[in-house]
AP complex subunit beta (Physocladia obscura), 800 residues
Amino acid sequence: MPIVTTGQTASAASEAGSSLSRDLTMGNVYETCEERMGDLRYLLDSKFELEKINALKRLIAMMSKGKNVRNFFPDVVKNVASTSFEVRKLVYIYLLRYAEEEPDLALLSINTFQRDLTDRNPMIRAMALRVLSGIRVQMISPLILLALKKASMDMSAYVRKAAANALPKLVSTDPNQHEACMELIEQLMNDNSTLVLGSAVLSLNDLCPDRFDLIHIHWRKLCTLLIDADEWAQIDILGAMLRYARVHFVDPNILNETGKELDSDHKLLLTSCVPLLQSRNAAVVLAAARLLVHTSPVDSLVPATKALLRLLHTSSSEHQFYVLQNLATLAHMHPHLLQDYARQFFLFETDAVFIKDLKLEIFGVIACAENATIIVGELKDLVRSWDLDLAVKAIRLIGIVCGKVETVAGDCLAVLVGLLASDQEIIVAESVIVTRRLLLQPTTASAASSKTTSLIVTLARSLDAIAVPMARASIIWLIGHHAATIPKIAHDAFRVAVKKFAAESQIVKLQILTLGAKIIATTGTESSGDVNEKTQRAVAALWEHVLNLARYDAGWDVRDRARLLKGLVFAQKSSNSLFSGKLNTILMAPKFAPTVNDDGEKKGAGLSKFTLGSLSHSFNVAVRGYRPLPEWADVVKGRELRDAAVELQVPPVPGWNGPAKSVSVRSNDLQLQPHHSSPNSAMGQTTIMPRISSMKPGTSSIVRKKYAGLEAFLDDSSSEDEEEDEEESSDESEVGLIKKNDAKQDEEGEGGEEKEEDNEDEEETEVEEVEYVYEEEEEEEEEEEEEEEEDEEEVEVEDD
């Protein structure tokens, strides 16, 4: 039997530990999570914490892949009472996902959740609250409500935030708790922590979006602390402030017309939103831009426009599509805002199809005399793209731009004529269709009047090479429309068209019949010139032949058109007919200019009926949960309620050289409200000083410490934070020493007063504790500190 030395044993243990460490890396876990599935139950029941952590990480990795791992729920629940913080954290992540699907099994651990609500670690308390509120069993809703009331007064802002987020889940489980949850929301709205305030507004938006009375007294606080809230809370706060502003303020564009100024609170809102346009979070930028678009004057939207354009070049393709949708709607609402930024919408080869379509749509909306040359130059390259769909869309857009701007008509027609020589039939057909539309536009026709005849001759010569029915019908219609000025071209085109009449599509047959009638109507007029009798007889013979073909055609539209035109031509030759001599007037009457439009333009116009940036705006249909934007108020409302918070200045604290703070005074308490030195620190967090609560009678005996200055308070606060973060495995002797020191300090700080013996709850005592007391002179403080040091030395000697 081989002898195993101590060194070999240590080496093997080290290799096993390093191997397990490699297995626990998240990259390796994610890639190999589906391997050894049969060992997970064994690992979850293991007595080693590392093996449990490994199994739990594999389960969470499979959850992130969309795998259903609810079969392991009983095995995971058994570890909810583990002493390892890492294990409990992973167990809670698993339970957050499946507690709603397995409420009966989750109820087995409800005692553990309740015990964790009093854990020293705020993260454990918050996660226990999240899991408890995620158990959708109406029977325990009173228990959840009691836990939420306790958590809403927790010392940790993270736990109070978890309580605010749990309120909508409680109401969805038990609607009877709605009123109680509203009281908690009102309480949490008084919180000065931006971490809690954002979640409170989120619950407000979900449970009672129209309860604006809960926002009145907090309006200025929300505007001031908006920049310090976390990114996702900023989105919820902006949504609530948008609805509030629309209901309580007057349309700023109407005020500009009447020469009146904006309300001061309205100005505060707009000023607070502008820094958020520089946020690194695209959702925050979109929310801020949405608020500015819907609440600020039109001439103040330039910063919002630039912020959206910035996102266009710094986001993924999905984000770009969402941003472009909003820019397209903004272009329809206020085209002048984007007319100077036409180059920002140039197409790239790597752009997705849906992004290219939106950029082309915006081109058509913002086209004007200043940027038409730039847009047409870009379209000249796109019409020769290898992507035929993109080339066709670019040709259509040329027609839109040319119809809007007369100065580029010559360039546009030259591009379209050049495309007639393309070997792609669909490109030629679309060019013909757009050219026909442009020649019917009054502005375009006058700009290209000298080239019209040569252009029609070119189109007539390409008639045989074009097979697309719509394009052939457009050419024949153009020839008939100008039959009086180009009679020879019209006669020859009619002869060629009649040869293929039986094989043509219905739309082309209709135009051939109309062309023959127009030629007969214009023959003999002054504009038609000299036409010999031989040509007239040939035209008449062709006309009779085409009427016979149409008489037996399968399409009833063609037969009906033939009978109509036959009757009009016969009436033209009859001397006693009501229509005698009026065929030319009927057929050659001036036509209405067609509206050069595009499907994308109609789509963008439809998007404007939804709130900018909403899901309904993206889908162009009202989805469930969508709330329409309220109409503007006729007069400013709620000003007296917002004025209930009066701005005061806190007197300078001895030893503090920093900037003065402003305090928002309300009827029931005082709340510290910081001023920001840098408006661009959108992602930073401002330290909110403790709340100054009004002292209740009998609370003077609760004051434990007195401070001569803010520096002493901060030093002591940091030491207290370190004590709270100690691990549970600390020595009992150290705990005893701390307790003795606290007892000693209580006796000195209270001046020998007798302790109250009314068995009050310890948490209520901490809530009522006064944070700031400035009563002692510096000399007395030094004496007390010396006495405390001597007492501590005596205690240490006693312990030894």
Q: What stands out?
A: Strands lie at 646-649, 662-665, 670-673. The chain is about 60% helix and 0% strand.
